[in-house]
Amino acid sequence: MKKNNADEATEQPFISHLIELRDRLLRIVLCVLLVFLGLSTYANQIYTYLAGPLLKHLPQNSTMIAIEVASPFFIPFKLALVVAIFISVPFILYQFWAFVAPGLYQRERRMIFPLLIASTLLFYLGVVFAYFVVFPLIFGFLTAAAPVGVAVMTDIGKYLDFVLTLFFAFGICFEVPIFTIVLVWSGMVSTASLAEKRPYVIVGAFVIGMLLTPPDAISQTLLAIPMWMLFEIGLLCSRLFVRKNQDDEKSYDNALEYFEDDDD
Question: Where are the domains of the chain?
């Protein structure tokens, strides 16, 4: 009888967590859907704005094309959906935070919540940097590199896939400070060992820049140097965090010893 009661007590919290997870996922879907419905009216304008960096560098009398019958209709709506998810990221992260926060310690809450905010802002910063700095250089280089007699006319679907890939790549690359802090926080590496590996990090940044950008030194450098600087920022923040974390642990240990002495 007692075993059955214990099993029921274990199942009830699990079911309640599943219900809460379902409710938060439904809120996320509803939020994305509402934003998408609001943006769908302006889907063509949003695509035109996204295509701006390429259209500025296309030769005269050259346009973008649609090689599939339904592309002119579906591609702008696909972009509107992606933008809706992009705009809803803060709400999505809040739902994630509200779901996991009750199971975290106080010190973990103080650490994870600022990291969620910082990671969101850095991802947005990477996307903005790609659109306003990298895209003009990339498309200027690619259109100028076309052989004589070749008309540059890009398919709208291929272009969308290309820019979304670059957005994601730059957004992830700008998360370098967060990755650095998490590695130090988890104890996998120390700030001293990361500082010793700085030359390898610099070389790795330029290799990533070479893989993600066209084969010209300008665009490669525009990705590699921010990654290096973001690594340095993450290393500095990691040192400050480790020092603060150690101070918090000492304060916690001192308080624990104080209460133990009172009990004696």
Answer: 16-247
Q: What is the Cα–Cα distance from 239 to 245, expressed in whole angstroms?
A: 10
49-58, 131-140, 162-171, 208-217: which has the minimum mean pLDDT?
Answer: 208-217
Does residue 232 have a pLDDT over 80? yes
Residue 59 DSSP symbol:
P
DSSP per residue, 177-193: HHHHHHHHHHTSS-HHH
Q: Give the separation between CA 65 and CA 153, rounded to whole angstroms.
A: 6
Q: How far is CA 108 from the centre of its chain?
A: 21
Query: How big is the CA angle at 260 (ends 255 and 264), to the nearest 5 degrees?
Result: 150
Distance CA 46, CA 44 (A): 5
CA distance 97 to 90: 10
User: For residue 114, is it left (φ>0), alpha (ψ between -120 and 50) or beta?
Assistant: alpha
Q: What is the pTM of this model?
A: 0.78
Tens-place pLDDT, residues 33-79: 999 999 999 999 999 999 999 888 887 777 888 888 889 999 999 99
DSSP string, 116-179: HHHHHHHHHHHHHHIIIIIHHHHHHHHHHTSPTT-----BHHHHHHHHHHHHHHHHHHTTHHHH
